[in-house]
């Protein structure tokens, strides 16, 4: 695959567990983030994407389009909620 959005993300994003959720910042100085692939803004602002896929530490964000385009290539696993890891039985 030769896509402009691919810039070595497999080094840190391959085979990660991701959570789909409303944007939250892990840094009080930031009110938004960018998709790791296409650089789309993800934030709580109405003009931006509000939901995305994020690593369990909320550090990397991936928009829905890029998630769908690259999920097979990267082998991602979607988990229901990073805070409930190991408690999958309660998740539908
Ligand atoms: Zn994207």
Notable characteristics:
four-stranded mixed beta sheet; binds zinc ion; 92 residues; alpha+beta; single chain; 16% helix; disordered C terminus; two-stranded antiparallel ribbon; globular; 2 helices
Kindly describe this structure:
This protein has about 90 residues and is an alpha+beta fold. It has one domain (about 10-90). The protein has two helices and six strands; from the N terminus they run αβββββαβ. The chain has helices at about 10-15, 65-75, and strands spanning about 15-20, 30-35, 40-45, 50-55, 60, 75-80. The protein has a four-stranded mixed sheet. Strands 2-3 form a two-stranded antiparallel sheet. The radius of gyration is 13 Å and the shape is globular. The N and C termini lie far apart (about 35 Å). Residues about 85-90 have low confidence and may be disordered. Bound molecules: zinc ion (ZN). Zinc ion binds next to helix 2.
